[in-house]
Amino acid sequence: MATFIDKYPFYGKESLIITDEMKVLISATAIMLTFGMRNYLFDVIDKVIVFPDIYYSSMNDNYHKGEFNPLMSVIVFSWKHFLEGYEISNDNLNLGLHEFGHVIHYQGLKNTDTSATIFAVTYDEIMEQVKHPPNLKRLRDSSYFRNYAYTNEFEFIAVILEHFFESPEQFQSEFPQLYEKVKVMINFHDFS
User: Fold this and answer.
1) DSSP H helical ranges for the chain
2) pLDDT tens digit string along 101-117?
3) Model-level pTM?
């Protein structure tokens, strides 16, 4: 976490003062996803921007709670909504995990280091299985993953990463093969 904090500058917007708590919580969220990887830092972002609440994004002329913008190499959060992601630990809604899920996904598809290669190969395996009509029907019928997961492949990966960390026992129980693939994808080791 300390290396993450040192590497990426944090910028508060709309008079928001960046605190050590903000840096630690945001950094810890990123490292939760990459802790098992050899390259646990991202090269597809170079800064973190934090707004106090929902903000207007010129990227798509809309209001956001958070976003990853690869063209600007930035990850952006509404601090209010980032914190809400941790208020209920098992509701599978976590803005930080979701947006960093997009970052790790993009990094995995763009880079060729060992960690990125493992991520990309496993991601392809997951998507091949998910696109198989009986598997997709079972996923949708279960209602375990919210409908937003089926918007596109990027949202699917971000949503399943939220579920992986917020309700791992249920995830493993309902979809054990998918759960194991996610573990491989992010090189997650359970030491319990």
Assistant:
1) 2-7, 20-34, 79-87, 95-110, 114-131, 133-142, 153-166, 168-174, 176-185
2) 999 999 998 998 999 89
3) 0.95
